[in-house]
Amino acid sequence: MNWFYRIYHFALKCIVIFIGIPNPKLHQGKQGLSDAIAALGLQKGDPVLVVTDQALLKLNLHQVVEDALKQAGLVSHYYADILPNPTVENVENGLAAYQQHQCKGIISLGGGSVLDSGKLIGARAVKPNKRVTQLKGLFKVLKRLPPNIAIPTTAGTGSETTVAAVVNDPARNSKYAATDFCLVPHHAVLLPELTTSMPANITATTAIDALTHAIEALLSINCLKFSRERALNACRAIFEYLPKAQQDPFDVTARGQLLLASHYAGQAFTRTSVGYVHAISHQLSARYGTPHGLANAVLLMPVLTWYGDRINQQLALIARHCGLTSLDYPVERQADDLLNHIQALLHDLQIQTRLNEVLPHDAAHLAELALKEAHPDYPVPHFMDPYACQRIIKEIATAS
Ligand SMILES: [Fe+2]
User: Fold this and answer.
1) pLDDT tens digits for range 6-49
2) Distance CA 33, CA 44 (A)
3) Ligand 1 geometric centre to CA of 173 (Å)
4) CA of 271 relative to ligand 1 center, distance in Å
5) How many A from CA of 262 to the centre of ligand 1?
6) Domains identified in the chain and CATH numbers
7) Looking at the whole model, is its pTM more than 0.90?
8) Checking CA distances to 180, which of 98, 133, 148, 328 falls within 20 to 30 Å?
């Protein structure tokens, strides 16, 4: 089957090369938010739907958006019931609010779940006759969404620049993604002040999620120049600024750099796909409810170690770019220097090495599901067999 997988990966690469994935226009800071709102091209008095969640409303993080909309003469309406694992019902209710108020644009403010929901509400607005389930898979929207802005309040998912939106469908007991170039938001606004209230453990695990996006993008055999540059810069920023943000949560420079790193890593992996860390972590989140960033943080070292010498070149490249090694060292030593640095970082962040909830006797089934997700979709540099995958899952299970 490996040759079939590689043909599939080559086809994915051709899509990225010949069709190209759009980037959102990037804005930073409060002036950037005003610029993005102006660029929506709406008339004074036009209604705009702000998609967010209750936690952000309670923290009053929406005020900056409210002020900017008022200043631009636009009228805000809120749909603020997005759940941490957003559902089809969330999207439908958001669409109902959009239609009821005859909104002309969408501003999504929140973590990945809110940003993904905003994308799907926009998709439903331009595809009113298609149910959310009919948007599942590749290129089911194929229509420009209403003018929209994505404002991330966590520095991890990169959803403000990616082509995918994930939704839970409790009626079908499933979770699926819609993937389409038109789901890339038109504008992304990075506001570091919005992330200073994030607890240290969430800052850590979301940043490691972004680091994983960057590393898995660099490992992908479909990693081209643009993705490589973005991923390398994301790694460097995370290694430099994550410890600073941990030391001082109000360090706005560090927060801004982490947001930018998450954005760059998002741009990279949306072109290359992710890899086995994500393939396994998705199964742990689905089976045990393990938070995505934490699952990735626990799995990152076991998966990189499993690759062994096969990824020395890529790891050494990261180590050199991030100044974590000496240019005089052989590649193997440079790769080791990166692995040691990641291990030390995870230790300093007090990230656990095992997950209590993972049961060793689930390993075979979880491995089967993980490899089903990875093959053929993820252009990994080397294929993992079910036994190796099971070993990794057992390794991070407490009772193993
Ligand atoms: Fe992720």
Assistant:
1) 999 899 899 888 888 999 999 999 999 999 999 999 999 999 99
2) 17
3) 22
4) 14
5) 10
6) 22-194 (3.40.50.1970), 200-396 (1.20.1090.10)
7) yes
8) 98
